[in-house]
Amino acid sequence: MEFTAGQIAALAEGVVEGDESVKINTFAKIEEGRQGAISFLANPKYTPYIYETLSSAVLVSRDFVAEKPVKATLIRVDDPYATVARLLAMVDQLMNPPRRGVEQPCFIAEGVEVPDDVYIGAFAYIGAGAKIGSGAQIYPQAYVGDGVSVGDGTIIYAGAKIYRGCRIGKRCIIHSGAVIGADGFGFAPTDHGYEKIPQTGNVDIADDVEIGANTTIDRAMMGSTRICRGVKLDNLIQIAHNCEVGADTVMAAQGGVAGSTKLGERCMVGGQVGLAGHIHIGDEVHIGAQSGINKDVAAGSRLFGYPATDVVSYGRQALAIRKLPTLYKRVDEIERLIKDNK
Amino acid sequence: MEFTAGQIAALAEGVVEGDESVKINTFAKIEEGRQGAISFLANPKYTPYIYETLSSAVLVSRDFVAEKPVKATLIRVDDPYATVARLLAMVDQLMNPPRRGVEQPCFIAEGVEVPDDVYIGAFAYIGAGAKIGSGAQIYPQAYVGDGVSVGDGTIIYAGAKIYRGCRIGKRCIIHSGAVIGADGFGFAPTDHGYEKIPQTGNVDIADDVEIGANTTIDRAMMGSTRICRGVKLDNLIQIAHNCEVGADTVMAAQGGVAGSTKLGERCMVGGQVGLAGHIHIGDEVHIGAQSGINKDVAAGSRLFGYPATDVVSYGRQALAIRKLPTLYKRVDEIERLIKDNK
Amino acid sequence: MEFTAGQIAALAEGVVEGDESVKINTFAKIEEGRQGAISFLANPKYTPYIYETLSSAVLVSRDFVAEKPVKATLIRVDDPYATVARLLAMVDQLMNPPRRGVEQPCFIAEGVEVPDDVYIGAFAYIGAGAKIGSGAQIYPQAYVGDGVSVGDGTIIYAGAKIYRGCRIGKRCIIHSGAVIGADGFGFAPTDHGYEKIPQTGNVDIADDVEIGANTTIDRAMMGSTRICRGVKLDNLIQIAHNCEVGADTVMAAQGGVAGSTKLGERCMVGGQVGLAGHIHIGDEVHIGAQSGINKDVAAGSRLFGYPATDVVSYGRQALAIRKLPTLYKRVDEIERLIKDNK
């Protein structure tokens, strides 16, 4: 596959600056540019690379002003990142068309209906009473427990595990190693150790959700642990039993949400954040990486730190701590003055 | 299955208040109540819901005093949470009876004895010299390495991996994605990079232990990494080589214990906690979420923070930090006064 | 297998002190010593155990001075830890010789060449266009996606998953549950939620790398996420898309590296550390456990804390915080004096 810069510009409704006949056959990051590649410049941190990149073309914003000569052909567009995303999607669809067919050996319980247009990989397991939507792709070694329903167009990658009775919506992506519906962590203390509290609920994942590799979402004690429409969870995240994650909320890797906590819609949660149990986070809350949250948070808040405070207070506190040695010196000096004065 | 509130009260040795003939056929959380459901009220945070719940019956403690009219039938018991746990266990046993039988294809090495009453799922792998206890349930795609022993009544969920030579006790539950017995992280620096130190020990898990989804427990360099009787580990926990976790200790999700550290009995460790290597935590120590512990801890301690201190000091420090901006102002004022006084 | 202390000393170029005819048939930690075992003393923290150990022999450094009588036979060597590592390696090679042969059923796509000397376990999946190096060991239930290349002598343990198009070098070890090449976490916000940005790159792992259990390394958006020669990653680590981890760098469990960050060579990163995206960490940087790093770090730095500072500043700050209650008392006293003086 090969395009000219001019062809790509036409596709992207962009304006070419430089040689529009230059040939493009791959993508490259701007700092790793090479001949035949197209790159993009969105984060200003990478601007210096545009003067050195070996890439043949670079997508830039319409208002980009070069401060030195640029060798690459520029294609000016409204949003370089969105444009490259769209181009990548086109290539991806060509290179990785949906898989179809049933590889053998796989295990499909009696009575399960398998639509014609699905993919079921070798060593996948489909339990009794499971429902597989049209166009679903279930990769090798995936486990779809008894009574699980998998929506139309959903992809379950190799080795992901869905325990009995859970529901996965349409157009979801569940990455390898994700475990959906393991028992919530519930035990009652007794005189002779802990007694397990059966977790009789399930996990209910709505449409257009993506679940990262090795992320775990526990089934509810009763009712459902809910992941709402459009949620994106990165890798190695823990969602405990009976939580609810609101629509279009995104969480970066290694975050953890303790039991029965509810997150609002359109929240952004940084990496390695911890949320205590039984709290409520409002809509559109942003939480900085590695923060810890142990109480309710109002909609629209911007939180950071441990224990988390709003971003302004956090900055003030951090500065106050950094200046502490100076404060000690000032108090030493005051005490010296007072002593001398007596 | 359907019961009346009166029948459930009889089962639970409780006292009915309201319509004892109301029909119950499911469980629901009190805030998600619906007709035909029974709920429970244990955490006072949820008390307001009892006046609005649509559930047909609610388990409450004997001394609960309603401040407004309650529509649901109340069943007064000694411990609502324990009662609901017992009811859930009864239902769970009816709904999810133990699995039996050997699904094909699975891989069972020559010479392994398979008791009549076990479940071995499709694509499970049982290595040479493995021992499978009576009533064990080994789900699809689980891996039981060479020489592993699995105790009576133990459940190994889909895709859990047990490396060679490890021992799992009786009545354990190992959730999907857990990895038991991967190599401990041991390397010796050399002039040309790190040299691997073979990890020749194993992991030894005693009876009645539950291991969460995607939790990892590394094999010992020599000897055993030990998980003692009754331990409950949540999801995504890391236990390094040669650690020991004492009986009836519970750890919440995403905690990590570095090499050779010993945890006492009946400890409670919060989520995302980190314990350094080669330290000793006494019995009945409680450690708050996200804390970091880097030295020995006496039995019975209550720790919090990073670096962790006892709960009282932690609270004092946190308050002192929050008040810092005020302290700076006070010192500014003092300096101004002294300057004016000169 | 049984050796005398004298034979082991000869092998290790050590000097025997005590009964050189004592029989050794196993290893034990010094604090768990038993008859017939050899132990070692490297960490001075364990010195007290040498006077009590039941082990028959102990490897000690040449300059170890006993302060009390020692019952065990001592073998004095230059580096007891390195010696025991070498002895363990010898035993390990005898006890766990490389596996060979192809177990059935497994899935090997048409056209894949399978060298004679490899191991492919039951239920392993080898996708179309994959390349399997000489002497590779691919354990049961492992997934090697389309077009993946696995270098000579590499071990992929049970259930590890390698997505399409990734490259694994020679003599690597990939532990169970590791996921190599899942999609990077990239989404573009739109009016109707997030749109997925296809991740069209791969993961490129060089030679002599070890990847821990349940660690996840995401494929690049374009280009490669790179793990350089000799890197050792512990369990449950997250490496985001387009990162680069430099040669011989080691990371302890549960650390996370956000997108496009580059780590230098020979760095040591403690457990549960978080690195922000798009930053650059120089060579030979050491980062203490649970630290958070959000900006570039110069080569050779020693960092600690959250937000991380150099170790000296961190110690100074921590002390300043611990002394805060005293500082408040001092300022109270000053204010009292000034008030009395007025």
UniProtKB/TrEMBL annotation, chains A, B, C:
One of its GO terms (molecular function) is N-acyltransferase activity. HAMAP family: LpxD. One of its GO terms (biological process) is lipid A biosynthetic process. Its EC number is 2.3.1.191. PROSITE patterns: HEXAPEP_TRANSFERASES. Keywords: Acyltransferase, Lipid A biosynthesis, Lipid biosynthesis, Lipid metabolism, Repeat, Transferase. The lineage of its organism: Bacteria, Pseudomonadati, Bacteroidota, Bacteroidia, Bacteroidales. It comes from Paramuribaculum intestinale. GO terms for cellular component: membrane. The gene is lpxD. Homotrimer. SUPFAM superfamilies: Trimeric LpxA-like enzymes (SSF51161). Belongs to the transferase hexapeptide repeat family. LpxD subfamily. It catalyses: a UDP-3-O-[(3R)-3-hydroxyacyl]-alpha-D-glucosamine + a (3R)-hydroxyacyl-[ACP] = a UDP-2-N,3-O-bis[(3R)-3-hydroxyacyl]-alpha-D-glucosamine + holo-[ACP] + H(+). The active site is at residue 241. Catalyzes the N-acylation of UDP-3-O-acylglucosamine using 3-hydroxyacyl-ACP as the acyl donor. Is involved in the biosynthesis of lipid A, a phosphorylated glycolipid that anchors the lipopolysaccharide to the outer membrane of the cell. This is UDP-3-O-acylglucosamine N-acyltransferase. Residues 22-89 form the UDP-3-O-[3-hydroxymyristoyl] glucosamine N-acyltransferase non-repeat region domain. It comes from the Bacteria. Pathway: Bacterial outer membrane biogenesis; LPS lipid A biosynthesis.
